[in-house]
Amino acid sequence: MPGSPNSTLLTVFYVGLLAIGLSACGGTGEFSKEDERRHGTTGDAKRSINQGLGGRSREDGSLFGPGGLFGSKPKEQADSGTGVAVNAYLWRASLDTINFIPLVSADPFGGVIITDWYTPAETPNERMKVQVTILDRELRADGVRVSVFKQQTSAKGGNWVDAQVDPRTNIDIENAILTRARQLRIAGGS
Q: For bias kind Basic and acidic residues, which ranges apply (predicted)?
């Protein structure tokens, strides 16, 4: 029944609940001294927490911030595109360098290439598997990491057992990838 004490009480309750909910969504984005003491956040840690992932401020990702609720995307997001998330030269060079081994998976957004087991014709009792991880969007010497896994047939039963890989093998493949990436960059004119 409209206007009854119970409906008025319910309306006041819902408005109060809504006000509490909205006040919990707000905030200054700054931490108090109590928060610092409790969580141990100071200086740079505060800035990174306040900015969130990707270096954006909290307002950028909010409903009514720049680009929110039917607005356009902020310029930095609009220009990011949907291309490869790692350095394109390192990605292409990695694929070129290990092209003789069949691939199991290639994730250009995560920067991981995993090959299938490969048995060289010269050594039929050995097989290897390679994982290439591209770590950076820049063409840098430490932007690629290679892990080689090796197995040999056992004397008993002919089962595959893990074998020691020469650590130089990983470095040699990384260097071959970096050399190919530099060649691609020079050929690309950048």
A: 31-47
CB atoms within 10 A of CB 118: 14
Give the C-alpha separation, 188 to 130, whole Å.
27
The first and second tokens of residue 11, run together, are 């309306």
Residue 151: strand pairing partners: 127, 162
pTM listed for this prediction:
0.56
Structure-token match 């130089």, residue found? 168
* pLDDT > 70? residue 179: yes
Tell me if 113 sits within 8 A of 94, measured CB to CB: yes
Second-level CATH architecture of 88-188: 2-Layer Sandwich (3.30)
Nearest Cα neighbor of 47 from 62, 37, 58 is 58
Range(s) of the chain covered by CATH 3.30.530: 88-188
Of 137, 92, 134, 94, nearest in space to 111 by CA: 134
Q: Reduced to 3 states, what is the DSSP secondary structure of residue 149? A: strand
- Give the model's confidence band at 78: pLDDT under 50 very low, under 70 low, under 90 confident, else very high: very low
